[in-house]
Amino acid sequence: RRPQSEKLRLQPAVVRLSLHALPRFRCRAQLAEFAMEHADADMNGITESPLSPADDAAKRGSELVKRYFMQLTKGCGRKGCPNRNCLNCPDGRGRLDPTAAALLSLELAKSEGVSHMLCDDSPPFLHIQLMEELVHAAMQSGDIKPFMKEVAAVFSNSDALNQSFLHSDAQLEQEAARLRCSREELSGLDTPSIVETYRTLLQTHSAELLNALMNATESLLVKLQVAQLAQPTFISKGPAVRQFFILMHNPLLLEPQYHKQVLLPLLSLIAVLPDLCSSQLVQWWSFLPAEQLQQMVSVCQQFVTVRLYHTQRIDDAVQAGTQVLGQLYEANEVALRSGRRSSSHPLDYHAFYNDAVNQEVNLREDYRRWKSERGEFSFCEHPFILEPSSKSRVLMYDATAQMTHEFEGAILRSLFVGATSPYLVVKVRRAHLISDTLLQMSLRKEDLKKPLKVQFVAEEGIDEGGVQKEFFQLIMAQIFDVNYGMFTYDEDLRVYWFNRSSLENEREFELIGILLGVAIYNGVILDVRFPHVVYKKLMRQDLGLADLKLAFPGMGSTMQQLLDYEVSEVESTFGLCMQVCYEEFGERRSHDLMPGGGDIPVTGDNRDEYVRLYVKYLLEDSIARQFGAFMRGFQSVCGGDCLQLFRWEELELLICGSPVLDFEALERVSQYDDGYSREHPTIVLLWQVIHELPLEMKKKFLFFSTGSDRVPIKGLGNLNFVISRNGTDEERLPSAHTCFNHLLLPEYKEKDKLRTQLLKAISDTEGFHII
Question: In what side-by-side order are the strands of the sheet with 742-745?
Fold first, then answer.
């Protein structure tokens, strides 16, 4: 390689002048002869007298042609060179005959407005074969310094890093075919080689080499930060983004010692990339296997966690880490939506929850920042990082803010127009639950966001939370009774679905939506058994065949069989048309999926359209009236920004609670009063009995003690459950303050007696009385 001081850097105008002064050749052979005669000349050893400007230009033009000729015919000597005008480039022009090489050299030298791509003037680069050679040479010689120098030269230079670890054209075509995308969508980087390079560096166990790597990376990031300060959009092209892709794979970023000098500037630079570059990086990340994306997520999670615990404040570093974590989250969502990552190898959305944020951050203050108009940073703007329980708290803060507004309004109105209740008071008769509730809810729509108070007519119970729990339990059981006609029930899947043939008024479906919203705002968990598509529809997400297969596996499997069948035999085998047939009130009915669908057969050519229309009809069109009313009721209470914090999975968890009944966790967190303790004989017997109960009886115990057989979002381990001693009369049954999750347990001496009395108590749990 020629010394930097002796490299020729010619401006296009100078090149044009010098080439005009070159000798005129009568034929190609003469040009080739000229190039070969001068190609091996030692230009550094020539001592000449000063030349005229024209002669000097001619000399420099001649030397430029010679350098191109040497590069095309002999190469630069480095394997895998990225310069396509070099013999050593795997995607180059191949071995040219001297005449063709001479002609091409002349053409390249004459190129106007183009920076001349000469290997001697290019930065270094790395690829996996070169890394292996460098490692082998270092092991053979025992001298790691040349290896260290090469690594440092690449990782400290933006141009060098951006042209390292590149796929060849053939490899890129194979990768695009494997991922079923275009070449333009890919980064062009050989990701396995990047991973293997870092692994090779770590396996050397050389602290000197690793320090050189991280020092070089730090140096590069300092240069990039300076450039970014001078011109915020200095990175505007895709190839320049490759360096960030490469650097984020470095496993050493997990080491806290590199957080301040390396990881912080790296995350800060990625966080402020122009939108186009940021989108490109997200797209490249979306092609990564889950384990590689998980490593980057872990890097960001650890950084945010350490920073929050260390500084106890949300500074620029935490914000940058959160923003990059959001880009990784989006990449994961893109991968899942596009089907690039199979459901058996997902990166679960739970991986993006951050414990420090959920445990240490003042969410009430974060909610205030979110709602302010000053543009302050808020984790509510990055809801992927918040657990469902944290989002539920934000929802409660929002409900409290709205209820307080309603409460204050009610007090203010009472001064002028007479007293009005600050609560949503519902008085119902057990025998007329639905009609009484429907009437009162429809008359008091403006009060739906006030705190709920339920009163059963002719009963003494005071609603401090327990009465409303039973109210929801009873009314939901009646509404979802298949004999009522609003829903159908699938015995195999154990889920309810909207009855498309229901004759009930839309107001009753609207009532169900209202009840779900009121339950959410009052922190009541419901026993609602909908398939997941209901929650996706509530979040206004698109549905497809994958949803049908998950919600109704039998129908989904049939549609998949249709798609997988031999194209030429679809029509003769299935005998379908663009029509759906079903039974309603004992009569066979049909619905055309498109105009004239009954006369259009389903063939191998139109089966994709048939499946799309069938799924749309089944999950959307057939229940549009019923679900539309249900959605209106739900939105009348829960419509707003806070609901958008949730994923559909989290919305289901918010409404229905956790499906896991972990009574061992409940035992661990239970508190005792009035003489009981964890070691008291009666308490020991109680937990023995509870753990021996079948699942349905455990649910009844939970309902008896708390007013609900559903589990809080974070599980039974997060339930504030108290057990108090209630005398020594063993003939007395256990009782409970369901409003406060408080079990009153007499001091039973024998296990059999305790089991008998407990089962009697939990088997009759309806009704309230003053204890």
Answer: 671-673, 722-725, 742-745, 735-737
Say what the pLDDT of residue 133 is: 83
Q: Token pair for residue 193? A: 């080689």
**Residue 485 near residue 504 (C-beta atoms within 8 A):** yes
Give which of 285, 274, 219, 275 is closest to 248, Cα–Cα.
285
Taking the C-alpha atoms of residue 508 and residue 109, their distance in angstroms, rounded to an integer, is 81
Please state, in angstroms and rounded to a whole number, the distance separating the CA atoms of residues 295 and 300: 9
Q: Which residues pair with 498 in a beta bridge?
A: 487
Distance CA 356, CA 290 (A): 23
pLDDT, residue 5, reads: 38
DSSP string for 85-133:
TSTT-TTS--PPPHHHHHHHHHHHHH-SS-----GGGS-----HHHHHH
* Given the residues 76, 577, 642, 739, the one annotated as active site: 739
Cα separation, 464 vs 480, in Å, equals 26
What is residue 725's predicted lDDT score, i.e. its pLDDT? 92
Cβ–Cβ contacts within 10 Å for residue 572, how many?
Answer: 9
What is the rounded CA–CA span in Å between residue 313 and residue 194? 35
Q: Check residue 259 and report its DSSP letter.
A: I
CB 188 within 8 A of CB 242: yes
How far apart are alpha carbons 145 and 744 in whole angstroms?
Answer: 76
Q: What is the DSSP letter of 58?
A: H
Phi and psi torsions of 183, nearest 5°: -60, -35
- The pLDDT, as a whole number, for residue 8 is 38
> Which amino acid is it at 692?
E
CB 266 within 8 A of CB 306: no
pLDDT lower than 50: segments of the chain: 1-22, 40-47, 112-113, 767-771
The CB density around residue 178, as the number of other CB atoms within 10 Å, is 9
Report residue 533 as tokens.
């598509």
Are 751 and 683 contacting, i.e. CB atoms less than 8 angstroms apart?
no
* Ramachandran sector of residue 715 (left: φ over 0; alpha: ψ -120 to 50; beta: rest): left
Q: Helices (DSSP H) in 272-312: which residue ranges?
A: 275-286, 290-311
State the pLDDT at residue 588. 87
For residue 310 the two structure tokens come to 């260390």
Query: How far does the chain reach from its first CA to its final CA, in angstroms?
Result: 94
524's torsion region: left (phi>0), alpha (psi -120 to 50) or beta? Answer: beta
Over residues 484-540, the pLDDT tens digits come to: 889 999 888 888 999 988 877 888 899 999 999 988 888 888 878 899 999 999 999
> In 3-state terms, what secondary structure has residue 649?
helix
What is the per-residue pLDDT across 271-280, written as a single tens digit (0 to 9) for each? 999 999 999 9
Residue 181 bears catalytic tag: no
What is the CB neighbour count within 10 angstroms for residue 230? 8
